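User: Please predict structures.

Assistant: First:
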Amino acid sequence: MIFSDAFVAIADPNRRYLLEELRRGPKTVNELAAGLPVSRPAVSQHLKVLLDAGLVNAKAKGTRRVYTVSTAGFLRLNIWLDQFWETAPGE
């Protein structure tokens, strides 16, 4: 189920940082790695987890990949979470 993957993906503080940075606009791995105390390969691994969870997108631009937040991925997550804000039967 994609939601469990998404929750696991956002559980890590480094991945939450990456999402916050991508919320501000598209970025490359090198741009994202500049703000974290981890290696560029580690940032790439974190981005792969976010990609697999459907929370980010990647596009090739020359020899680089540019990452963005996946609106569709967060929409699915929001729809799932919103069901808990609806009034439950008997309340």
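Second:
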Amino acid sequence: MRTWITLTEAARQLGVQAQTIYAYVSRGNIAVMPDPADPRKSLYRAEDVAVLCRKKQVGRKRAALAAGTIFGAEPCIHSAITTFSKGRAYYRGRDSIRLSQTSTLEDVAAILWNARTPISFDMDDTPLQWEERGRQCAFMSLAALAANGHSTHGRTDRALHTEAGRLVALVSQAFGAQCNDKVRFTHERLALGWGQDSEGTDLIRRALVLVADHELTSSAFAARITASTGASLPGCLLTGLAAFSGPLHGDASGRVRAVFDHVERVGAESVVAHHLQSAIPIPGFNHHLYPDGDPRAQALLERLNPPEELASFIEKVTRLTGLQPNIDVALAVLAAQLKLPRDASFALFATARSVGLLAHSMEQLKVGKVIRPRGRYTGPVLENAESAPPKGDRNGVPDAATVDRNRVFKTILR
């Protein structure tokens, strides 16, 4: 292999113009020497050019990988929080369906947060930021805390767990949870605020455990991005819940509730026929991660006794489409059966998922790197760089230092 190559060969191997080769030389990336055969020309170290070629190839591969993973099914983020196996979600190795039989949301928080001591969601005296309870109250209250929140850097796990517990309590309180001397857990506080008996209280507990986390969702990714910058826990949670609130994510149960309202008005037969004849997808059925059915929905629905018309609707959709109901249907059925507030499905989901979002945020802190994807530019053609004023030029005329510097480089690199 030749040790030195010409300017034309270097530019061809790298796929760049001669000006770019000059820039590489000026930065010390490519060594240069006078051409013995023609002192007016220069030769360039072939090994340096080869190294730059390899770096460019790696950059292309990384760009392709990034484009595929951000919008694909395999995001490149390592996590020890939740995974899927045999059609079920596992919280740090624990079967989430089995946990829902007896565990509380506080128990699940201790698992997901990898806490060494039991977790409690203590309500403090932080004022809520809206008169009426609901999502607006939750978001505004978190925003007020995020505006003056403390960075997560330099704080112990125990301190973060304490603050995270208070944030979950704040979210539940914003959705109507109430506290007295007899209730300790989130499901009991929500049940008290919503006027539920012991049966309803246990159904709320099961639902909270089942939806506490779901691996690297878009909302978890958003929360992790915020956490990677060292932002406060309220800021991380607010970011995650903002992504979570979209109708294609956590607020999908709202679309299901709208269909249920239609069923109550005109009947299951009419609603199913309308959707099938119009080729309109019925929200709440099928889940891309669970082709054989959402086990969270199955675990909750088997404990429910929905109103007759809703039960008929679910049966008809399943029989005629072959699609199974997912967790959004189960939460909407739960809210309808217990006659909960209209936004209760989202309230249950958001309160429970706050635990998972905070788990992802705190795990990301230990990585110690800012998540910063690169963009692939697809905009208008760039202006001609050669027409831009040279460095050091303010009025179209290069200054003396710039002229001298350009003269030296032209002499060395010719």
